[in-house]
Amino acid sequence: MVKNAKVRVLWTLAFSSATIWTFLLLTWKNEWKDSIDNFSDAFVRSKISLAAFLLVLSIISLLYLMILASCFSFKRDYWISKTSIFIMFVIFLFSASLISAEVAVGRGNFFTTRRCFEYIFPIAQLVLVLGAVFAIIPFLHCVEKSEKKFMYWVVAFAYFGLLVSPLIFHSSHIIPTKEIPKKPLLIGHRGLKTLAPENTVSSFKLAEKHLVWGIEGDIQISKDGIPFMMHDSTLLRTTNVEKVFPKRSFDKAANFYWNELMFLDAGSWFSKDYIGEKIPSLKDILEFLKSKPNLKFIFDLKMPPKDHPYYSSFKDTIVEIIKNSDTSHQILWLFSLNTFFDSNLREQEIQLIKTQLPRAQLVAPATFRLHEQPTLSAIEQGNFSYINTFQGIGNGLLDSYIQSSSVNTWTVNEDWLFGQMWLNGVHSVTTNHPQRFAPMTSPPTWYLTNKHYFILWSLLIVYRFLEYLFKFCGL
Description:
By secondary structure, this protein is of the alpha/beta class. It is 51% helix and 11% strand. The protein contains 19 helices and eleven strands. The chain has helices at residues 2-27, 33-45, 50-71, 82-105, 113-119, 121-144, 149-164, 201-209, 241-244, 258-261, 282-290, 314-325, 337-340, 343-356, 376-381, 395-404, 415-424, 434-437, 450-472, and strands spanning 174-175, 185-189, 214-221, 227-229, 296-301, 331-334, 361-366, 386-390, 406-410, 428-431, 448-449. The chain has an eight-stranded parallel barrel. The chain has a two-stranded parallel sheet with strand order 1-11. Strand 8, helix 16 and strand 9 form a beta-alpha-beta unit. Helix 1 (2-27) runs antiparallel to helix 3. Residues 1-8, 23-49, 73-80 and 100-112 have low confidence and may be disordered.
């Protein structure tokens, strides 16, 4: 009977330790970049929502409580009680309901879940570590009564391992010195799309007035070979095509001729103030750039359908227009994912840009998917000046990119997320809200230096160690 009880205690201890460390790995940034960062990327890639996190937490907590209850009786001096199990069961039902609602309305995918954890990291760290330490107290009570001191010290080691763990893991909010990184430069996403209709001259001009370093847009090509600015594959959302060409509302934008596109209103959908705003051609944007020689221009090339007359010559047409405009020094040429991750296509495009637009800077793409993250060797060999990456990639990978190149992250719209990117040391961010970020002179979030962080946790460790030592000595 005693042997079975000891087996249950050991199994429960192993289970709880695995649970605790799993959540530590999911929640905390660590410096084991090669192995743990891939695990973190998998966490982001799984698109876990906050409700899903609560669901997993409640299930594990319920299992822990029930297993602990099977090993120990319900006593008043333990934190376990029927009320605890009931509360966790309520959380389980609540989070399961949230997930159902998210799936029903199509909002169940939150790529920035881990970034949220990063933001509240030290607070969550304190709660999780102290909660884990508190959860292990019943085992301490149990092994204290055991005659075998070996088991006592095993549990004691696990106990203080939890206390020391915050000195191993840290977030971007814990910086090495009092000197914070330089503020990221700003790139207006499709201009200033929150105050003007996206991808229009008015939007780009307004973004420039709010002190952006660059503007970002999307380029397509008409059926007669005129490159123009448009994000969506159709014209329905951002023009009055339904009114002008009612039978062609769902046609591809690239299947319209330029004289047809010129008839459309690209501003009235946004506001009455922009009635009559036209779809700009690439030449219109480059003319604006010439008047702002320090403004950068990064763009996504939206390939036309394969049966389009300019499908094979699309990029050549873009290059020729930029070359003739004398704005190549302002161009950040962003490679598409398909081109970059095909070594032959990548090399062909590198040679095209280097020979035709030698002053343009090459930009490598990166996403949260492991197979869409460029290697440092590919970036170095291709002489890429920038890496344009999704803001939710693993911190280990982000740090390695920052060390090797200039990094731009997209799309950063929240203050707390902008603060994280600032503290991470990225070169620039693509945002819908340059008007909000431009006036900021310090990160819009809290942060601690390594020294202060270390002192805070060291004091807690010393206190808990002395308390444990006095108890062990019977003082």
